[in-house]
Every structure is written in structure tokens, then in C-alpha cells.
UniProtKB/TrEMBL annotation:
It is found in: Cytoplasm. GO terms for biological process: cellular response to heat; protein refolding. Gene3D superfamilies: 1.10.8.60, Clp, N-terminal domain, P-loop containing nucleotide triphosphate hydrolases. InterPro entries: AAA+_ATPase, ATPase_AAA_core, Chaperonin_ClpB, Clp_ATPase_C, Clp_N_dom_sf, Clp_R_N, ClpA/B, ClpA/B_CS1. It comes from Pseudoleptotrichia goodfellowii. This is Chaperone protein ClpB. CDD domains: AAA, RecA-like_ClpB_Hsp104-like. Residues 1-141 form the Clp R domain. PANTHER family: ATP-DEPENDENT CLP PROTEASE, HEAT SHOCK PROTEIN 104. Part of a stress-induced multi-chaperone system, it is involved in the recovery of the cell from heat-induced damage, in cooperation with DnaK, DnaJ and GrpE. GO terms for molecular function: ATP binding; ATP hydrolysis activity. It holds the Pfam family ClpB_D2-small. GO terms for cellular component: cytoplasm.
Length: 856
């Protein structure tokens, strides 16, 4: 018996059994079955009743009331059997199935048999003919040949959305530009055979928007005669695949969609976004994929399909299947230019203004297009520019709905004073009474200020709300105007256009004028109700880590004084510091070459003169963290194959998925200092990879992705020519030329020619060394601060350290080792043996043979 029923009808009978138990009935009744059918989740019966205009909630309530009035068995029964009436319904349902040519008994058969055998449905206004008409409309003449026929009913409504209907409701964004691509798609759709365009382009360039643009043109009638009565359904592949548990269920759903398309006599065009997903979709052992179901229909021209996919996925999936590829006609969708993007954003501006309830300046639109093009390189226009506008608007909207900073500060201060007041009321002395009096006076003033600020905040919020409401009304009227134009209802059109719309536009103009006057006349506005270039720059900075917003006064001073700050930490290398500082100043003022790194330098000099330390100091001044550098130790790249570690292994090699050390680091932090340490140790072939980086500010990694280096500072260090520099501590021009000549012998001209500057570091003199020792000893003082101990040192001590530790061949490094080995070790021993009490000073001196330590 069970084999005759569909899954949904079995579910309904099982649920009817449960209702019989719940209502303590002696047997299963038709009312129990009707209750199960009407309340069935995703069932056919509730859908039909809804289309008939029947209130299913009210119907369910009447059924429940009827069941509650029926006699009950005390204690109930665990296994009620169907009564005679219900048995007649089941037999009648079988007759209906045979009459309709169905292989299974479905829920509609049970419902119709219930109608014949029970008066409840007739008594509640359900007309059998009307039910059968809606049923035929949904079934579309299909026979039930599986136990899950509901999957094939209204398949397009279930697994897709009507783009023309969405356009009618004003749910689609306006399409600006792309006329050429839309015309080409319409031209392909108008062909007799192989009339299936496929839109190919990078993610975010507007492929889906083109399909929406065609839907909008169909709605306006701005298409050839053969497309005027058409509609476009966008297929949701996720909904189609999800929940298809059994073999063949996915194919059944897709076949139902394709059958609806075929039966529509070409009236419906199917849009499949990410069309490459149909190749292999639903494929299991013993079944074919979705692509093979589509091919015959596409070839015969029985269905029209618009596809959209990226170039990579087209090559990977569609091109491989030659039979599928020849059925589609490709349309290349290129990334729009910055100028085109500005036009697109201007077209979308009103939609975003209405949604966020704020004003978007034209300055913000231009900045979003130009900055996204320049700084966000892993995404495409116009998508990335639209996202910038959206996020900046969301940020301002959030601030409007949050308490302004000025009001928040007053409220918190008031709360603090109220707590203090409660504490002081318990005190009886005169000083406390005086303090309480002044406190009450301050609280009264703050309350007055709080009331004033709250009132101002509410007024400003209401202003923003009024303008948003008017804009929403205008949008609704524009939709009504479009509908009236389509229906040629000229009376309504005139009434809307010259009456309602004109009034609303006048209201908006007045509101904007008021808002502008208040904005100009009052510099103390609490809320910002518009976005301009500054908000866009802030979002770009948050996305990329690149500081592109206008410099605040404090930041300007920091950049201008960069050289002074660096000289305080790096001793004796003023020329190198000035060169680096000037480069950063040019970059932050916006005068650097936009197609190259901020700066590229080679630091030459003996070991220990501060080449690497200067790089760390630069990172400290730019990012407040000296470890915030991408450091590549070139001694690890001594063979020619090690270049793959920098940019990632090519396809087919081990480590292909991991990415390169350099490219991955810069992709994550586009604004960074890159240090190539000791470049002379690397294999010469490694430098061929850097040519592209230094010249064009970009590098292609092993996966073929382009990594942007335009916001990096590239520093390379080398010890080439150290011997020559040590022989001439003053670094004359002759010495510099000799060092640069040696560089030319070691590196190719095309590499050296791409470097902005080669800076030769001087060897350190005795005065420089003394200053370095002073800095090292200051660091020790910082470490001892927590223990309340301070150290001081005499000139004799400094001279002794210089004589003992300094060697021009090794630079400043031995100084650190000496201080660590001698001074830090001796101080540690004295601290542990309690020779240095808290709040004391240790004077470090020298007797000519060793350092002496005296506690004061």
C-alpha cells in the first residue's frame, strides 16, 4: 500500500495519526487528515489555498475547534485506525490518481476525495472547480511519475527569481553604461539557433548587472519586437542543489525547470550566474551532470540561456567541454574605466542616499573611483568603488544613530559627579559641605548642557529623517510614473508627474536649502549627515593599511620632523637619514611616481654602522613598531632555484599552494618597509625577479597573481666596498666612486639603474661611538626603571668603553656585546646580592684598567 503514496501524502497520513492520538479520538477521521494537509510545511495544498485567497490559519482554527468538540476517549488510544469515512477518502484518492493518469496517490488526490466525502470544506467556502483550476495551473499538465512530484511544481518560482518583476517593483539598481554589451546580448538572443550569450569577465565588473539591464529594457519596451513579451528568470544553483538527498533528485528538479522553460514557448529566458557550476553539478556514479541535460535543448534552440562566469572558470570548465562551449556565444565584459565608474556611482548615488539616509557628495564619488583604482589592486571596478561608498555611508549612518562624542562626554562626567555627590552627602565637615555646594552647581550646569545637546541631537536626527522620508516618497512616485507610462494611463501620469512629484521635489529642495543654511551658519553641528572624500580615504586606509587620508596637523609635524627623530636613534649617518626622510615627505604629500615603489635604496658600508638599524628605525617612526618590516635575508637565496621562495613555486612544483615569502607578506601588508639584507650573498639570477618590482611597482607570483608594491619602501643592504670605506673614514668623493665601481662589477646595469639612490654609510668616528654608548646605557636605565634604580656614567667610563670595545672593522656591534658582558652582568650581580637598594643611583666610572661601580 505504501508504495502507492508520494512522500508528502505519507507524511500527511502519519501526521493525521498523530493528531488522532493528540485529540484522544477513538479512530482517525477526515478532519485529522485535513488538519495535516492544510498545515503541511512546503506542501502543495497550503500553496493552492493561498492562491485561492483562503486564510489557512482561520481554516486550521475552525478544524481544531471542530475536533475539540468531538467525543474523546479517557486516556486516549496509542494506535487509532482510520474510520469508514477516511477509508472511503483513501479509496477515492486512488480513483482520482487513476483518472488523472498519475502513478502515485498525492496530497491533492487525498484533498479532493476529502471534499467529496466530507462537508467541512464546502461549508467553509472552498469551491472544487476553483481548486482544480489552480491545481492544473501549478501542475502544468504534468503527470505524477515519482514519489516526490512537489519538486517539479512551479520549479522556476522555487529555484529562481523573475528579474523583470523585480525591476517592476524597483528592486534592481539602475544600470549605467554597458550599452554595447547589452546590445550584443540582445542581438545573440534574437538569433534562430545557438541564441545563448555567455558574459565573461572578472568578478565585480558588472556581468549580473548586464542581465538586470536587459530585464529593465524588456520592462520599458526598449527591445526588439521578438523580446518584448519575454521575462528573465535568474536561476539559483544553490537552491537547486541543496537538499537533493537521493540520486536523481537534482536532475528531476533541473528537468522540471527546463520543462517549464520549454513549455513557455520561448517566453522565459533563463539567466545562470556562475554558469560553470552546471558542469559537474549533481554528478554521481551512474548519473549525468547538469551540463549534459542542457546541451540538447540549447542546441535545438528550445530554451534561451544567458550565462555569466569569470575568464578563469570559463577556460577551466566550459572550454574543456567543446560541445557545451559551441552552444554559447561569448561576450567579453571588461573592467570599466575610472571615468565610467564615476558615471555608474553617480547613477547609484540616490539609491544609497535613500537607504542610508545621508547625503553623498560628488567629491566622495570621484575619490571612491580614483582611490579604489589606485590602492585596491586585488579587486575590480566598479564593485570595489561601490563597496567603498556603501561602507563609508554605513559608517556615517551608524554615527548618526549613536550618541555623539560631545554628549557622551557630558553624560559620563555627570554620572561621575552624581556618584561623588552621593558620597559627600554622608560627610558632616565644612570642607565636604563646601565641595558639595560647588559640585551641585557644576551638576546643574552639566544637566543644562546635556539637555541642550540632547535636544540638538534629536533635532539633527529628525532633519536627516525628514529628508530620507521625502526621498523614499519620490522613489515610490517615480515607480508609479513608470507603471503609468507602461499602461499609457496619461491622466494618472499627469497627476503624478506635475502634481505629486513636483510637490515632493519642492519639499526636498526646501529641506536641502534649510539643511545647507543650518550647516553654513552653525559650525557646532553634532552629526555629520554627508560623506565626502575624507570618509572614503579613511575606509581605504582601513582596508589596505595605506595612510591615504589627509594629514592632520600632528601627523604633518611628525613627517616633517622624521629626520630629527631618526637622527636621535641612528648616530653618524645623517646623509642616509635625510635621503630617506625626503622620500617619505614626497610620498605623503602625494608627489611620488604612482607607478613605482615609494623609494628603493641600496645601503653600502662596513658591518655595524647602522644599515639595518636605520631600516628598523624607519619602521618604528612610520608604524610605531620597529619589527613591522618584511625582512628577507639574502644569504638564504644563494642558489638560482631559491627565487621560487620569494614569489612562490610554479604550478606542478612542491609548495605551489603556499605562495612566496615576499609576495604573500606584501599582499597582506601593502604599506610596508621591505629589507633585503646582505644582497651580495644572493645568486645573481634572484635580482632578475626584482627588476619588475623596482620599475613598475608590481610582481607576479607563482600563481599568476599580480602583487602591488607601489606603497612599499625597498631597502637593500650590502657590505661591498667595506675595506675601501674603512681606509677613508671621512668618505671622500674618490672613495665613494671606488665603492660604486665595485658595485657595478657585482650587479648588472639594468638592476642598478632601477634603484633610486645608492647610499654609502660612513665608518663611525669616536664621537659617534660615544653617542651610541650613551643610547645603549639609556636603554639600561629604561630596564631598571621598574626597580627604581638609575645609572649615571662619567666621560672616563665612556672613553674606557670606546678604547676597549670599539673596532672600526666591526662597527657598533661589539659595543653592545661589551655593555652586556661587563656592565649588565655586574649590575645584575649587585642587584641580586642586595648591594643596590631601591631609589638609588649607580655611578659608573673608570680607573683606567676597569669600570668601577659606586652606589649613591
Amino acid at each position: 500500500m505504501e508504495e502507492k503514496f508520494t512522500q508528502k501524502s505519507m507524511e500527511a497520513l502519519s501526521e493525521a495519526h498523530n493528531f488522532a492520538v493528540r485529540y484522544k479520538s477513538s479512530d482517525m477521521k477526515v478532519e485529522h487528515l485535513l488538519l495535516a494537509l492544510i498545515g503541511q510545511m512546503n506542501g502543495l495544498i497550503p500553496n493552492i489555498l493561498k492562491k485561492m485567497g483562503i486564510n489557512t490559519i482561520e481554516l486550521t482554527k475552525k478544524l481544531e475547534d471542530k475536533l475539540n468538540r468531538m467525543p474523546k476517549i479517557e486516556g486516549g488510544t496509542s494506535d487509532p485506525r482510520p474510520n469508514g469515512e477516511l477509508n472511503r477518502v483513501i479509496v477515492g484518492a486512488e480513483d482520482y490518481a487513476k483518472k488523472m493518469g498519475d502513478a502515485y496517490i498525492s496530497t491533492e488526490h487525498l484533498f479532493l476525495a476529502s471534499y467529496d466525502n466530507n462537508s467541512f470544506l464546502r461549508e467553509n467556502g472552498i469551491v472544487k472547480n476553483q481548486f482544480e483550476n489552480v491545481l492544473n495551473e501549478i501542475r502544468g499538465g504534468r503527470k505524477i511519475m515519482s514519489d516526490n512530484p512537489e519538486n517539479s511544481y512551479e520549479a522556476l518560482e522555487k529555484y529562481g527569481k523573475d528579474l523583470v518583476e523585480l525591476a517592476r517593483k524597483g528592486k534592481l539598481d539602475p544600470i549605467i553604461g554597458r550599452d554595447q554589451e547589452i546590445r550584443r546580448a540582445i542581438q545573440i538572443l534574437s538569433r534562430r539557433n545557438k541564441n545563448n550569450p555567455i558574459l565573461i569577465g572578472e568578478p565585480g565588473v558588472g556581468k549580473t548587472a548586464i542581465a538586470e539591464g536587459i530585464a529593465q529594457r524588456i520592462l520599458k519596451g526598449d527591445v526588439p519586437e521578438n523580446l518584448k513579451d519575454k521575462t528573465i528568470f535568474s536561476l539559483d544553483m544553490g537552491a537547486l542543489i541543496s537538499g537533493a538527498k537521493y540520486r536523481g533528485e537534482f536532475e528531476e528538479r533541473l528537468k522540471a525547470v527546463l520543462d517549464e522553460l520549454e513549455n513557455s514557448d520561448g517566453r522565459i529566458i533563463l539567466f545562470i550566474d556562475e554558469v560553470h557550476n552546471i558542469v559537474g553539478a549533481g554528478k554521481t556514479e551512474g548519473s549525468m551532470d547538469a551540463g549534459n541535460l542542457l546541451k540538447p535543448m540549447l542546441a535545438r534552440g528550445e530554451i534561451k540561456v544567458i550565462g555569466a562566469t569569470t575568464l578563469d572558470e570559463y577556460r577551466k570548465y566550459i572550454e574543456k567541454d567543446a560541445a557545451l562551449e559551441r552552444r554559447f556565444q561569448p561576450i567579453m565584459v571588461n573592467e570599466p574605466t575610472v571615468e565610467d565608474t564615476i558615471s555608474i556611482l553617480r547613477g547609484l548615488k540616490e539609491k544609497f542616499e535613500i537607504f542610508h539616509g545621508i547625503r553623498i557628495t560628488d567629491n566622495a564619488i570621484v575619490t571612491a573611483a580614483t582611490m579604489s583604482d589606485r590602492y585596491i589592486n586585488d579587486r575590480f571596478l566598479p564593485d570595489k568603488a561601490i563597496d567603498l561608498i556603501d561602507e563609508a555611508a554605513a559608517k556615517v549612518k551608524t554615527e548618526i544613530n549613536s550618541m555623539p562624542t560631545e554628549l557622551d562626554e557630558v553624560t559620563r562626567r555627570l554620572m561621575q559627579l552624581e556618584i561623588e555627590k552621593v558620597a559627600l552627602t554622608k560627610e558632616k565637615d565644612q570642607a565636604s559641605k563646601d565641595r558639595l555646594e560647588s559640585l551641585e552647581k557644576e551638576i546643574a550646569e552639566l544637566k543644562e548642557e546635556e539637555t541642550k545637546l540632547k535636544s540638538q541631537w534629536e533635532n539633527e536626527k529628525q532633519e536627516a529623517g525628514r529628508l530620507t522620508k521625502i526621498n523614499e516618497e519620490i522613489e515610490k512616485v517615480n515607480l508609479e510614473i513608470q507603471e503609468a507610462e507602461r499602461k499609457s494611463d496619461y491622466n494618472k501620469l499627469a497627476e503624478l508627474k506635475y502634481g505629486k512629484l513636483a510637490t515632493l521635489e519642492k519639499e526636498r529642495e526646501n529641506e536641502e536649502e534649510k539643511w545647507k543654511d543650518r550647516n553654513e551658519g552653525n559650525g557646532n553641528k553634532l552629526l555629520k549627515q554627508e560623506i565626502d572624500s575624507e570618509e572614503i580615504a579613511e575606509i581605504v586606509g582601513k582596508w589596505t593599511g595605506i595612510p591615504v587620508s589627509k594629514l592632520l596637523q600632528g601627523e604633518k609635524e611628525k613627517i616633517l620632523n622624521l629626520a630629527e627623530h631618526m637622527k636621535a636613534r641612528v648616530i653618524g649617518q645623517d646623509e642616509a637619514i635625510e635621503t630617506i626622510s625626503d622620500t617619505i615627505i614626497r610620498s605623503r604629500a602625494g608627489l611620488k611616481d604612482p607607478n613605482r615603489p615609494i623609494g628603493s635604496f641600496i645601503f653600502l658600508g662596513p658591518t655595524g654602522v647602522g644599515k639595518t638599524y636605520l631600516t628598523k628605525t624607519l619602521a618604528h617612526n612610520l608604524f610605531d613598531d620597529e619589527n613591522n618590516i618584511v625582512r628577507i635575508d639574502m644569504s638564504e637565496y644563494m642558489d638560482k632555484f631559491s627565487v621560487t621562495r620569494l614569489i612562490g613555486a610554479p604550478p606542478g612544483y612542491v609548495g605551489y599552494e603556499e605562495g612566496g615569502q615576499l609576495t604573500e607578506a606584501v599582499r597582506r601588508k601593502p604599506y610596508s618597509v621591505i629589507l633585503f639584507d646582505e644582497i651580495e650573498k644572493a645568486h645573481p639570477d634572484v635580482f632578475n625577479v626584482l627588476l619588475q618590482l623596482l620599475d613598475d611597482g608590481r610582481l607576479t607570483d607563482g600563481k599568476g597573481k599580480v602583487v602591488d608594491f607601489k606603497n612599499t619602501i625597498v631597502i637593500m643592504t650590502s657590505n661591498i666596498g667595506s675595506e675601501i670605506i674603512l681606509e677613508d673614514p671621512k668618505l671622500s668623493n674618490v672613495t665613494k666612486e671606488a665603492v660604486l665601481d665595485e658595485m657595478k662589477h657585482r650587479f648588472k646595469p639594468e638592476f642598478l639603474n632601477r634603484i633610486d639612490d645608492i647610499i654609502v654609510f660612513k665608518s663611525l668616528g669616536k664621537e659617534h661611538v660615544k653617542n651610541i654608548i650613551s643610547l645603549i646605557l639609556k636603554d639600561i636605565n629604561k630596564k631598571l626603571k621598574d626597580q627604581f634604580i638609575k645609572i649615571e656614567f662619567t666621560d672616563k667610563a665612556l672613553d674606557y668603553i670606546v678604547d676597549e670595545a670599539y673596532d672600526p672593522a666591526y662597527g657598533a656591534r661589539p659595543l653592545k656585546r661589551f655593555v652586556q658582558k661587563d656592565i649588565e652582568t655586574n649590575l645584575s650581580k649587585m642587584i641580586l646580592s642586595n648591594e643596590i637598594p631601591e631609589n638609588s643611583t649607580v655611578l659608573i666610572d673608570s680607573d683606567g684598567e676597569k669600570l668601577t661601580y659606586k652606589v649613591k
